[in-house]
């Protein structure tokens, strides 16, 4: 049982809260029963280490069974050790270290995608996690992150996906022009979500959203740069019926993705 919060092994895990350590090792942290449950169900081969307190292991019989089935051996650790490893204040007695498993851009477009979420300079971890979760719920084929978007393996992103990180392919570190080139070659239109765009309801009525679509979402504060807007095939805006100045990025992205999902399934 690990009991020393200052041991080299514990320190190495704790460093994964920093992007530099995640980049150097190609690994990341998963905290809490929900994230551990999902990675054991969908990406068990990615799990390197699993640390648990005896109390948490006793409490979560389903996780014990899932770990046994996946051949993942748990290491008991004290609450102080878990606290030293974790990004959260209360890690709930379970922490896993997993390999990063990004998808490739070529593989995503080789599968004839119909719905994609492309994030250009999305910087808030909570927003990115929620967009990944919404894309998963809307049946999107992948989420594509350009080079200046927040790391999807940031602990806050991982938590806010509530497991969707393991359900939908996520492409990282590509440039927007490369994404658009692949999209056009695959017959996928690129639609920018932008307040200066055309009315989304009119586009829906015209059947625009029923086509294979890559939605392009920009920075929370600045939106999309002019060159990104110019590269898109069209730009659409969500109507505001009340007095709100605007919608949160993740909320707007969720609506856009579901509008396409509805149109493509009607």
Can you give a write-up of this model?
The protein has 266 residues and is an alpha/beta fold. It folds into two domains: 8-99, 60s Ribosomal Protein L30, Chain: A; 105-265, 3-Layer(aba) Sandwich (Alpha/beta knot), CATH 3.40.1280. It is built from 13 helices and ten strands. It has helices at 8-14, 19-25, 32-42, 54-59, 61-70, 79-85, 105-110, 125-137, 155-161, 176-185, 200-205, 226-231, 249-265; strands at 27-31, 47-52, 74-76, 94-99, 115-119, 142-146, 170-174, 189-199, 213-217, 234-237. The strands form two sheets. A six-stranded parallel β-sheet has the order 7-6-5-9-8-10. Helix 8 runs parallel beside helix 9. The longest helix is centred in the C-terminal third of the chain and has 17 residues, at 249-265. The radius of gyration is 20 Å and the shape is elongated. The model has no long low-confidence stretch (mean pLDDT 96).
Structural class: alpha/beta
List the domain count as a whole number.
2
CATH topological fold name of the largest domain: Alpha/beta knot
Q: What is the straight-line distance between the termini?
A: 55 Å
Percent helix range: 40-55%
* CATH homologous superfamily label of the largest domain: SPOUT methyltransferase, trefoil knot domain
The strand count comes to 10
How would you sum up the major sheet? 6 strands, parallel
Which CATH architecture of the largest domain is right? 3-Layer(aba) Sandwich
Give the helix/strand layout.
Blueprint: H1 8-14, H2 19-25, E1 27-31, H3 32-42, E2 47-52, H4 54-59, H5 61-70, E3 74-76, H6 79-85, E4 94-99, H7 105-110, E5 115-119, H8 125-137, E6 142-146, H9 155-161, E7 170-174, H10 176-185, E8 189-199, H11 200-205, E9 213-217, H12 226-231, E10 234-237, H13 249-265
Parallel strand pairs: 2-3, 5-6, 5-9, 6-7, 8-9, 8-10
Antiparallel strand pairs: 1-4, 2-4
């Amino acid at each position: 049982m690990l009991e020393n919060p200052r041991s080299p092994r514990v320190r190495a895990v704790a460093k994964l809260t920093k992007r530099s350590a995640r980049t150097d090792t190609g690994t990341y942290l998963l905290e809490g029963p929900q994230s551990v449950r999902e990675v054991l169900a969908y990406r068990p081969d990615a799990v390197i280490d699993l640390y648990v307190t005896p109390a948490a292991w006793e409490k979560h019989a389903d996780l014990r069974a899932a770990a046994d089935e996946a051949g993942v051996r748990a290491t008991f650790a004290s609450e102080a050790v878990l606290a030293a490893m974790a990004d959260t204040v209360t890690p709930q007695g379970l922490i896993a270290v997993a390999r990063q498993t990004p998808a490739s851009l070529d593989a995503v477009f080789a599968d004839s995608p119909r719905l994609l979420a492309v994030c250009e300079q999305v910087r808030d971890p909570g927003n990115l996690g929620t967009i990944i979760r919404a894309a998963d719920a809307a049946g999107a084929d992948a989420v594509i992150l350009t080079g200046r978007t927040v790391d999807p393996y940031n602990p806050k992103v991982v938590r806010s996906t509530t497991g969707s990180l393991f359900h939908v392919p996520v492409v990282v570190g590509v440039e927007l022009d490369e994404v658009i080139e692949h999209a056009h070659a695959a017959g996928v239109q690129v639609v920018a979500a932008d307040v200066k765009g055309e009315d989304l309801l009119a586009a829906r009525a015209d059947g625009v959203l029923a086509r294979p679509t890559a939605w392009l979402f920009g920075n929370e504060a600045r939106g999309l740069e002019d060159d990104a807007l110019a590269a898109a095939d069209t730009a659409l805006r969500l109507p505001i019926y009340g007095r709100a100045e605007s919608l949160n990025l993740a909320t707007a992205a969720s609506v856009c993705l579901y509008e396409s999902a509805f149109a493509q399934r009607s």
